[in-house]
What we know:
By secondary structure, the chain is of the alpha/beta class. The chain is built from 14 helices and 17 strands. The protein has an eight-stranded mixed β-sheet, sandwiched between helices. A hairpin with an 8-residue loop joins strand 10 and strand 11. The chain is globular, with a radius of gyration of 24 Å. The chain starts with a strand and ends in a 5-residue tail after the last helix. It binds aspartic acid and magnesium ion. Aspartic acid (ASP) binds next to loops.
Amino acid sequence: xxxxxxSVGSADRIRGVAERVRERLxxxxxxxxxxxxxxxxLLIKGARLAYERRAGTEAICQEIRARHHEAVAGLxxxxxxxxxxxxxxxxxxxxxxxxxxxxxxxxxxxxxxxxAISAMxxxxxxxxxxxxxxxxxxxxxxxxxxxxxxxxxxxxxxxxLSAPTEARVRERLLPLVQQGTVPxxxxxxxxxxxxxxxxxxxxGSDYSAAIIGAALPVExxxxxxxxxxxxxxxxxxxxxxxxxxxxxxxxxxxxxxFGAKVLHPATIKPAVEKGIAVGILNTLNPTAPGTLITExxxxxxxxxxxxxxxxxxxxxLISQPRMLMAYGFVARVFEIFDRHRTPIDxxxxxxxxxxxxxxxxERLPAIEADLAPLGEVSILxxxxxxxxxxxxxxxxxxxAARMFTALGDINVVMISFGASDVNLSFVVKQDHAEDxxxxxxxxxxxxxxx
Length: 450
Ligand code: ASP
Ligand code: MG
């Protein structure tokens, strides 16, 4: 059971976590937690301030101390346990202060140092959650993930090494679980074989849950978050949005790529590959059934399943009349994007032109300059990609016609269909994106009963 930042964001929320775990004690859970909401951002912000020798690190330490003291005070009433935990919080925050001073004085912030700093949120949270559970009568025990989840030394985005991780996770956690203890581990953080702290990248505690779950003989992984699951569309835009009871891994991947933010499916791959179903559940609405992510979808082929969209996209059009019958042109275009390390999302070509989309505007001026010798370049900014996600699209007659009819007078600048069987994407002006999404949802999701 993995609980995200908002699920452990306050004393009340942590009490809720303990209840969810208590309900499932007979299933012998292992618990993985994120940092309290907002703490990782603060830790990183402090590191940047220290590096730039600007004021504000003191205030950040104060705030981090206060948030955790407050959680402890709201959760642990037994005097001795509370004092011990408060002292532990102080010790970690003091360590943080010393790190900030070090960064400031040295004027250096290596990825390795940044990992040591950003790991502190989960070091704090898992201890507090474990102590709170004990206080509430659960047989919980804090277990550090460092020394169990073993990674390479790609600080900031370390990759787990499966053999040592599996061996250590089993060796350490199985005996605890077998004796009825609930281990409570920090997500996101890990260590190298030498014991140096690493992190798995932002949002990495889902990844931790999948790595730890895949190393154990678990029946299921539950990702407890603050939404009801994966929805047909963003509910802030379409109030008729529905929770999808089940999605395939491929569908979840497409949705995440094109804008849905529930979880990054790459992070649960280790579990899905082992055939472990991953559930998304809501700590704020714990009786809702949630979404189950499985290896393959049971949904009928050819159906649209969800809509995702992404704004702030730029479309780049390169036309070159002499490209007619030429070869090597596309390769030269791609080489330029490669050189600028800028990923391309959608591509469309005609006999004499190529258009593509990027969502990272940073390198655009430089890319434009490099493209200029290849032909006439124009850039449309402020565009959006809208994606209809499902499966079996390529064999489905009439899908595109339905889509264009639903869009009516909204101008489509570019379309990508057929590259994958699970996605039909198009580009519109971003001011039209919400409208396009609503019209598609009405056509594909509100007409017949699910
Ligand atoms: N606390 C980390 C972050 O905010 C990891 C996580 O929450 O998954 O990125
Ligand atoms: Mg988080």
